[in-house]
Amino acid sequence: MVSDSGGFDDKSFNQSGYEGLQNAAKDLNINEKHVQSKADTDYDPNLRSMVQAGCKMTVTVGFLLGDATKNIATANPNSHFAIIDYTDDTFPKNVKPIVYDTAQASFLAGYLAAGESKTGKVATFGGINIPTVTIFMDGFADGVKYYNEKKGKNVQLLGWNKDKQDGTFVGDFKQVDKGKVLTQGFLDQGADIVLPVAGPVGSGAGAAITEAKAKGTDAKLIWVDSDGYLTAPDYKSVILTSVQKTMASAVEAVIKDDKDGKFDATPYVGTLANGGVALAPFHDLDSSVPAEMKSELDQLKKDIISGAVKVDSKASPKK
Length: 319
Hints:
Number of domains: 2
Oligomer: single chain
Helix content: 40-55%
Order of helices and strands: HHEHEEHEHEEEHEHEHEHEEH
CATH class of the largest domain: Alpha Beta
């Protein structure tokens, strides 16, 4: 496995993917190697090192490794590859994409946030303006909009305009301090629930909201990729829920299929229906979410799965 520049301890998608690799090594009795990328220029050499080490399958983590994965896979047709969070119609047949329709679970999060907001303002920001980030923001925006339509409310969303596909971004997945500053800015504007879609930069949002809570501001955080209550426990007192990708199980399943001689290049697409994406439990804040809201979320999930409620994002992967 090759990480992107966030590293395997990012409390987010690199970490979740790595857990899948570890589980596969243990459950399938196979050897694993992994290497962390510190910069974009590391992707090609890191990928090449895995092939040279004799790895039968190499899993790359993240949209940013798309070009490097295609280049190395094309040059090594007898090796198998899987890539999390990216698909490309021009990939060679030895690459399997693992992608997620996170707009579906983010729609639920947006509906929840709009219903739970006491100020009538919620916010989101991204790491970089790329499809695997904006798909969360699109779903979140649509969930807020759907709540407003159903309830006759006017909850505002700060940080993202879906129609213009433009909003607030850190510029990378590294500047935790900038994530904190952006979040404080949203709190100052009156937002009381924030969704950072920025990998480890989400810790900056968690710090700002935790500090605001200590000063009497009732703000909450929605994590992404993993269940932040478990992966970012420093902020569990303010984490309302998380928009999860069940990456660990998907990675292990893809590796198992490869070991069993069942590799194919058909993308794995995680949805609400197959459990590939989900809204995490409310944990410590469960009592703050009314039974009526929980019931509405359960029904909304069923409606999204059945197609009664349409969730669309330009970034949604093809089914």
